[in-house]
Write a structure and sequence with these properties.
It is a single chain. This protein has helices at residues 4-12, 14-23, 175-178, and strands spanning 120-122, 140-142, 160-162. By secondary structure, it is low in regular secondary structure. The protein has a single domain (32-182), classed as E3 ubiquitin-protein ligase SopA (Pectate Lyase C-like, 3 Solenoid), CATH 2.160.20.80. The chain has a three-stranded parallel β-sheet, with no helix packed on it.
Length: 182
């Protein structure tokens, strides 16, 4: 478990935090319920971190390493996450409303029940992602890679799929996609 001094290092700047992570390679940062909204955490290494129920709203996480991080039930509304690596991250029930995930990697990520209303998923890698029961209403998916993604039960009202979406590669495409030409 991290103490307030460690959280203060994270809030100071990404370079200080990344040096701290390098000096403590065996520590899995526990930032559950941390209040980290409106920060600039560009290129920060939060891989494997416990961020369950953390508030990262309006936070700049562009280029951040969030591989295998637990962001279940986290608030990431309007977060800027371009080019972030969220491979195999746990984002179940997370709120990513309005988040910009352009060019982010979410390969194998668990987004079951996540809220992605109005999210930007431009050139986003969602291969093998679990999007069961996710809410993608009004989301913009341009050239998103969805091969092997599970969209069963996902809400896609007014979601905009632009570019090639190979339906044969999607596990359980919802009726909204199955009936459209892409």
């Amino acid at each position: 478990m991290l103490n307030q001094i460690d959280i203060d290092v994270l809030k100071r700047d990404s370079d200080s935090w990344n040096r701290w992570r390098q000096a403590h390679p065996g520590v899995r940062p526990d930032l559950k319920k941390a209040l980290l909204q409106k920060l600039c955490l560009r290129d920060v290494d939060l891989s494997g971190s416990l961020l369950r129920e953390a508030d990262l709203s309006d936070t700049n996480l562009s280029g951040a390493d969030l591989r295998r991080a637990d962001l279940s039930e986290a608030a990431l509304t309007w977060a800027y996450m371009c080019k972030a690596n969220l491979s195999f991250a746990r984002l179940g029930q997370a709120d990513l409303s309005g988040a910009d995930l352009s060019e982010a990697t979410l390969r194998g990520a668990d987004l079951q029940g996540a809220c992605l209303i109005g999210a930007y998923l431009i050139n986003t890698d969602l291969r093998d992602a679990n999007l069961k029961d996710a809410d993608l209403r009004g989301a913009v998916l341009i050239n998103a890679r969805l091969s092997g993604a599970d969209l069963s039960g996902a809400r896609l009202d007014k979601a905009r799929f632009i570019g090639r979406v190979p339906l044969a590669d999607i596990i359980s495409p919802p009726p909204e996609l199955a009936g459209s030409a892409h």
